[in-house]
Each structure stands twice: as C-alpha cells, then as structure tokens.
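REQUEST ID: PR-0412
SUBMITTED BY: lab tech R.K.
PRIORITY: routine
TASK: structure prediction, single protein chain
INPUT:
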Amino acid sequence: MKLSARRKAWNGAVKVLLYAAACLTAALLIFLIGYIFYRGIPCLSWELLSSQTSYLKGTIGILPNLLNTLYIILVAMVIVLPIGVGAAIYLTEYAKNRRLVAVIEFASETLTGIPSIIFGLVGMLAFVQMCGLGAGILAGGLTLVVMILPTIVRTTQESLKTVPQAYREGALALGSGKWHMVRTVVLPNAVDGIVTGCILAVGRIVGESAALLFTAGFGLNLQNFVTSLRSSSATLAVALYVYASERGEFNVAFAIAAILMLLTLLINLAANWAGKKLRR
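STATUS: complete
OUTPUT:
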C-alpha cells in the first residue's frame, strides 16, 4: 500500500512538472511571437514594402530586401535540389559500398552541426575571393547550397527508406529497369518527404543572416536579378541586422522581424499542407 501511494505521488509530481514545462514552452513562444507582432505590425506600411531606402528623400523601404530574399531562394534551390536528391538516390538505391555510405552520412550529419558563421567565412574565401564572384546573390546562394545540402540529402534518404522494399521488387519482377523503377515507383512514393524537406530548407534560407553577411553583402539598393548576382545585396535577415545594429532603426527592424515571422509560419503551414496532400 505504501509503495502504491508513493508511486501515485511520484506520477502526480512528474505530470505536474511535464505540464509546467509544456506550458512554459508555449508561453515563451506566444510571448516571442506576440511581442514581435506588437512592435512590428504597427510599423508596416505600403511605403515600407514598396520602396527602397533613400536618405536623400528621407524614405526607408525594404522592397530590395524582399526581392533579394526571393532571388537567393531561387538560386540556392535550383542548384541544391538536383545535387541533394541525386546524392540521396545514389546512396539509397545504387551504392554498394556500405562503408562509403556510412562515411558520407557521417559527413552530412557533421556539416549539419557546423555554425553558419563558419560557412560564411569559408564561402567568402572560396566563392568571393578565390573564384572572384564578389559579394552578391550568387556567392551567397552557393554558400547556402553547402549549408542546406546535408538537410536535403538526409531528408530525401529517410523518405526513400520509407518506401516498402516490396514495391521495388515488384517493379523489377515486371521487367522494369533500375532507373525506371526508381523514377516511376520509388520517387512518387517518397515525394511528400522530399517536398517537406525542401520547404524546411527554404525556411532556413529565409532566416539565415550570419553566412550571408560575408557573402551576399549589405547592399540596400534595388537591382534586377542579373545585376544582383554579383553585386552586394542584403536579404531580409541581413537588412534586419543592418537597421538594428548599425543604423538604430528599431521600428524598421521589428517590421522586418514581423515579416520574417509571418514567412516562417507560412512556410511551416505550407510544409504540413504539402505533406498531407502528397501523402493522400
């Protein structure tokens, strides 16, 4: 009886601690989102979203930063998707040397844990200086490719591994070739996980600033896509750093933070929606 009473008391105490931890986590998230929206949304205006910064005219705008964010997402994803998905398909479906696969997987996991500021330093040395690309969207996009490649590879691998082996054997038994089997049977059944990983990678690109400080630059001028590839171009996250730390424009910084928060929420919702639709 005493043991049973102690167990009930212990279980009750553990439940209270778990509920308290869950409530504290939710409260911190709500406070963070609420405070950013409280400070940022009142500062949003059409002029801020549709113009560029001009100190001669006394205006501040983040339209170039919005476009630069879209540019760098386009450049990074166009390069990383074929490489990442192709590498994952090779490691899962074609590679015979398991030691090589283990080494590559270990390298991918190690790259995932490296701080982004180190990627920025290496990207500056490799792409900006050695390759002579200069600070811009192209150098920043290539740096982000190196950053998010392990995420794409590992996510795609895990998604491919969830496809039942019987599907592969059935396709091969019907006379299908290896690549035909992968293209028509394996990939369609794994596409939901691949898309979800890609959307999460886009979310990391949107919120990245440390690596882009060294590679994409601080430029706040409005430029077209071709010009921005090799010209200093600040994304939204970099612009937030510039306005908050160097120019003291905290209202603009909170407005950008609110936009980034909305983009992050939309990306997460899109990932959940795409995963459910493709799974069906």
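NOTES: Residues 50 and 63 are 5 Å apart (CA to CA).
REVIEWED BY: pending
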